[in-house]
Amino acid sequence: MNRILLFALTLIFPFFGxxxxxxxxxxxxxxxxxxxxxxxxxxxxxxxxxxxxxTYGINQDYLGPTLIMNAGDFVEMSVTNLLNDTTTMHWxxxxxxxxxxxxxxxxxxxxxxxxxxxxxxxxxxxxxxxPHLHTKTANxxxxxxxxxxxxRDEHEAGLDLPRDYGVDxxxxxxxxxxxxxxxxxxxxxxxxxxxxxGTLAPYLEVPAQRVRFxxxxxxxxxxxxxxxxxxxxxxxxxxxxxxxESPVGIPSVIMSPGERLEIxxxxxxxxxxVMYMRSAGSELPFGMSGGPGGLDxxxxxxxxxxxxxxxxxxxxxxxxNPAGPIPTTLNSxxxxxxxxxxxxxxxxxxxxxxxxxxxxxxxxxxxxxxxxTVYLDDIEIWExxxxxxxxxxxxxxxxxxxxxxxxxxxxxxPLAGRKDVVMLNVGDTIRFxxxxxxxxxxxxxxxxxxxxxxHEDAGMMGQFVxxxxxxxxxxxxxxxxxxxxxxxxxxxxxxxxxxxxxxEMVNAxxxxxINMVGQQMDVPVLQLSPQRVGVNVSKLRKxxxxxxxxxxxxxxxxxxxxx
Length: 563
Ligand code: C2O
Ligand code: CU
Ligand code: CU
Known about the structure:
By secondary structure, the protein is mainly beta. Residues 90, 92, 130, 132, 258, 395, 397, 447, 449, 451 line the site of CU-O-CU linkage.
């Protein structure tokens, strides 16, 4: 093939691999109101000509409907699992009680229906939902179990922003997939075919006006470097947890798995043109999956380290009510001051050997081990350090956080809003501040983990319980009460409880187990190592107890449950 022909071909087939954009972009149906009934089932879709592809879908054949909720509403959810596999359903980004959060502890067995309900304590933003069963998350999401959540509130409703769903407010759920010769999905570490909202080779007719795109990276591990046509003045207005304080003109934005971005592009005057949404993979920083040096996975498919278009935009006539210029002030964020922090935690991403699997603080996820105890209404700073050779998107449940700094520098504009996922490149240290409000549960923990779903399923996850300090004992003899540092697990415990501190000595003779009416229990306490003590709780009745560690100058106390 001569060079001229090759050049002509790339003009006709801008999509790497030569596919044309022939399928209208699917816009997921919506459910709004206060009752959300979801049915997760096996299904199939004719993605490619010939055999149809086996999928999972939620109320539809692939992916799920967009749930539109109003801040302040009390909503009732119902999730029916018709898969031949256990699942859970997690409301990613939402601030709900642990029992309603849908983490790995809240299994929905085949044939069962789970019915959480909660008040929507949120700002207007874009969240999503997906299964979260440990070791099964990547697989179930890959087959199609995921959907978008849009939160609306009065403040956002008062701003002149595009919000006509499917018209000038468009969900863009990006995923990469691989298919075998029989058109079945292949569970690839890095897949080779782009899909948006479950549509291969998609095009979208967009009105010649300001259009808002709600991006969700629902890929397992591919990172995108989102690039909108530069002549549309792409402007980021929102991140994971809500609107930014002010809009930021942005040539490209990196979006790691789990993250959401809201971007407005202005197509005014561009009617009849054809443009592309692109990921500039070649410009991803070294170490991110999908860019140069994304070490995870066989490099060399069409998408890896390449720039590729994933959506064709066909500009059509404007609507009768286009949104005006983007307001210069979108939100006001009240970020806690570092001096207000009660607790400082350090989470190091590391590996026991070299490479996969990766862990947090050297500890693989253990369903029965609560890694951290947080106290209600505490403001905490978490310092995340990536000491591995690949980037990791860190996610935490229950809260939205504010990034304090990235490698000691102020966060760049896309990270300056409310976040629940933050990407750490190789060698990065990122600190965030957050407050743990409203919900406690001594039994069901919340999760924090890498949102690279392969890493998460392989154990790059930890869990924390939030306890009410009023439930723990208070000052005795003026001694300071400190409620952190010592890890107790498993909690609940059935026979043996381990107490350990990575930082200091724990002496068996300083430990007492006290019941809820204040009586000290007579139980064997063993010194296992200088920093580890074991308590035999097998003779205790079921119920809650206080574990008290009392030394000369302080008392620490924590509630445990014996089951
Ligand atoms: Cu998107 Cu713990 O999850
Ligand atoms: Cu989550
Ligand atoms: Cu990771």
